[in-house]
Amino acid sequence: MNMGAPVSTRGVSARPPVCWRLCWENELELADHIELSDFFRKTYGPTGEFNAKPFEGHRSWAGARPEIRAIGYDDRGVAIHIAALRRFIKVGEIDLLVAELGLYGVRPDLEGLGITHSIRVMYPVLRDLGVPFGFGTVRSALQKHITRLLGRQGLATVLPGFRVRSARPDICLTVPPTRVEDVVVLVLPIARPMSEWPAGEMIERNGPEL
Questions:
Q1: Distance (Å, rounded) from C-alpha 66 to C-alpha 87?
Q2: Per CATH, domain 19-204 is 3.40.630.30
Q3: CA-CA-CA-CA torsion for 59, 63, 65, 70, nearest 10 degrees?
Q4: Distance CA 67, CA 86 (A)
Q5: What distance in Å separates the CA atoms of residue 118 and residue 110, rounded to the nearest whole number?
Q6: What does the domain layout of the chain look like in residue ranges?
Q7: How far apart are CA 121 and CA 125, in angstroms?
Q8: For the segment 129-179, what is each residue's pLDDT rounded down to a tens digit?
Q9: How far apart are CA 158 and CA 147, in angstroms?
Q10: Which segments does the entry list as coiled coil (predicted)?
Q11: Number of neighbours of residue 41 by Cβ within 10 angstroms
């Protein structure tokens, strides 16, 4: 798998093309982390000061550190980002290998490209990794929005009504070491069909959220 080949979006949008860089985490240089940290602070900052805080100190991840990143660049720098991490989660009573997708961000002036295009870019990566499923979560309030963007286009199956327990990325004496959230689950069938996704409405992430 060539993780360094750029993929252009020329022809997809009237905007200047976005060229994708697919890279393993170990391939990132210090300058990459600094640039990504600035991108995430500016992208997540308008949604709340706390959301930008994990990216202080030139840190380019929020919870679990990703394994693979897809970074879209244009003539202004980082434009869009999505990452993946292979891990075992427990769905009901079944341990399941997935590639968790997260650390999604898009520069406000490029909202038209959005998550749909980044998911399309990641599909070949996930196929090369041979994982049974891609997996992600969003807040329940975003169910209609994410269904319109991904579910109706057949890019992912949207499953509401789940609870996910995750480890907190840092230990704090005033809060429990894990947290439980009500979420909408996104499943991308990769090497196995959706019919083989396990039954169960409780998911153990057994680690921090990506």
A1: 10
A2: yes
A3: -80
A4: 7
A5: 12
A6: 19-204
A7: 8
A8: 999 999 999 988 878 888 887 877 888 999 999 999 999 999 889 999 999
A9: 6
A10: none
A11: 16
